[in-house]
Amino acid sequence: MENSYDVIIIGSGIIGCCTAFELAKKGYKTLNVDKLASAGHGSTSGSCAIVRLHYSTPDGVAMAREGFYYWVDWEGYLGVKDKTGMARYVNTGCLVMKTPLNKSLKNVMASLDDLGVAYEELDADAIRDRFPLLNTRRYFPAKGLDDPEFGKPTGSAVAGAIHVPESGYVTDPQLSAHNVQVAAEAVGGEFRYRAEVTAILKSRGRTAGVRLKDGTEIHAPVVVNVAGPHSYIVNRMAGVEKGMKIRTRALRQEVCHVPSPEGFDYEKGMPIISDGDIACYSRPEVGNHVLIGSEDPECDQREWVDPEDYNRDFTRQWTTQAMRQAQRIDRLPIPNQAQGVVDLYDVTDDWIPIYDRSDLPGFYMAVGTSGNQYKNAPVVGVLMAELIEKTEAGHDHDRTPVTFTMRHTGRTCNIGFFSRLREVNPNSSFSVIG
Ligand SMILES: Cc1cc2nc3c(=O)[nH]c(=O)nc-3n(C[C@H](O)[C@H](O)[C@H](O)COP(=O)(O)OP(=O)(O)OC[C@H]3O[C@@H](n4cnc5c(N)ncnc54)[C@H](O)[C@@H]3O)c2cc1C
């Protein structure tokens, strides 16, 4: 087996695969190593795969807008057909509730206007007219189940919402990562599974490759950390954490799958709902189910965990999320048997990812995706390939950040926005909204 490459990418989740695809297209000889059995088996497999455009910063919105175009033309982007099947983008539209926390979406609307994205403002009556299943009472701020005020409205109506027609979700995130692997292989990329990296090799003050658990050494002048919730462990192996102002940690999350209210086809016509009023996001899920995630309200305790050792069973958090969603969807059934997903986010101090080089020459990272970067993976692939190409050619990214023109929107992406050396971004939502 070959043991020398131009670039080794640690991780074959959706972002690791997209990074490989873009680098391989540029002519780099790439190898992805992943300790699991196949592409997308890490946190990508637990992703809700929602493709929405509202972020709290203009850079966040612009990147999501760019990402959207890749998903609507998934096969065109990849240029291959995966024999095991192709993931599919389903357009549902997205309803985003206005709350004091998101400043009634003023900044989001300004960013959408700037990008020429169509959306509509709806008041509570218009929300009910459009989606009669939803009740529009106000519950903000979210509360824990033990709070005596839980479930009691705090106002007769929500402050309104925006509806963004161009939003949706991808049917099978794990398969989407495999699709990208197949595309990367078609342009020369290689993948090795059940291969756990235990050390980053160094030589003459720069990265020289990786050592695997079985002792195998694989050589490359460039190594990229795309290890998802394990990112901090890999950064520690490389000894680069001390050179970062922003760090990453693994955060446990639960996602509920509950049946649709009886007699209603939830998969027909229901949008993604980002509902800060009840601190839940939701979307239709196959089998006429409703998928419910958390928007991480203040009152919920955050569970920072060791990604190797955490509770994979549902807890009271599952019931809390389902009950919160039931405040918005009348007659929402909440079964005794919890169903859904328990997985991890890789969260930064400001919930904005780190796409950057490190203090160790040749060692890069696409980490801290904070539960909100699945949709951006193809753009991140392009970004990382640009960053690596320019930095390896001698550009000082820390001094003058690399920029590139995004293919679809024609906007400039300043990669410095995602720097490991940034101050915590005060404009972030400090939640999964990013
Ligand atoms: C519950 C949940 C819901 C989400 N919902 C959304 C959503 O709706 N929309 C959205 O945009 N984003 C969402 N996200 C976020 C999104 O899924 C992630 O940002 C994205 O999947 C991260 O991809 P990745 O390739 O960076 O990481 P991963 O998919 O976690 O891949 C990392 C890989 O690295 C491997 N690895 C780790 N350490 C080592 C090692 N030492 N040696 C070898 N391999 C190693 C792992 O095995 C793993 O396969 C969600 C995430 C979760 C958990």
Structure in words:
This protein is of the alpha+beta class and 434 residues long. The protein is built from nine helices and 23 strands. The protein has helices at residues 14-25, 58-72, 74-78, 106-115, 124-130, 173-186, 231-238, 316-326, 377-392, and strands spanning 7-10, 30-34, 50-51, 89-91, 94-97, 120-122, 161-164, 168-170, 190-193, 197-203, 206-212, 217-219, 222-225, 248-259, 272-275, 280-285, 289-294, 304-305, 340-348, 354-357, 363-367, 403-405, 412-414. Strands 5, 6, 7, 14, 15, 16, 17, 18 and 19 form a nine-stranded mixed β-sheet that branches. Strand 20 (354-357) and strand 21 form a beta hairpin. The longest helix has 16 residues, at 377-392. The mean pLDDT is 97. The site of flavin-adenine dinucleotide has 40 residues, from helix 1, strand 2, strand 14 and strand 19.
State the main characteristics.
434 residues; alpha+beta; nine-stranded mixed beta sheet; six-stranded mixed beta sheet; 9 helices; globular; binds flavin-adenine dinucleotide
Q: What is this entry, summarized?
A:
Helix content is 23%, strand content 25%. The chain is built from 9 helices and 23 strands.
Number of helices: 9
Instruction: Using the alpha-carbon principal axes, give the shape.
Output: globular
Q: Roughly what percent helix? A: 10-25%
Low-confidence residue ranges: none
Roughly how many Å apart are the termini? 41 Å
What is the oligomeric state here?
A: single chain
Helix and strand layout, with pairings?
Elements: E1 7-10, H1 14-25, E2 30-34, E3 50-51, H2 58-72, H3 74-78, E4 89-91, E5 94-97, H4 106-115, E6 120-122, H5 124-130, E7 161-164, E8 168-170, H6 173-186, E9 190-193, E10 197-203, E11 206-212, E12 217-219, E13 222-225, H7 231-238, E14 248-259, E15 272-275, E16 280-285, E17 289-294, E18 304-305, H8 316-326, E19 340-348, E20 354-357, E21 363-367, H9 377-392, E22 403-405, E23 412-414
Parallel strand pairs: 1-2, 1-13, 2-9, 5-15, 13-21
Antiparallel strand pairs: 3-8, 4-8, 5-7, 6-7, 10-11, 11-12, 14-17, 14-18, 14-19, 15-16, 16-17, 20-21, 22-23
Helix pairs in contact: 1-6, 1-9, 2-4
The protein binds flavin-adenine dinucleotide (FAD).
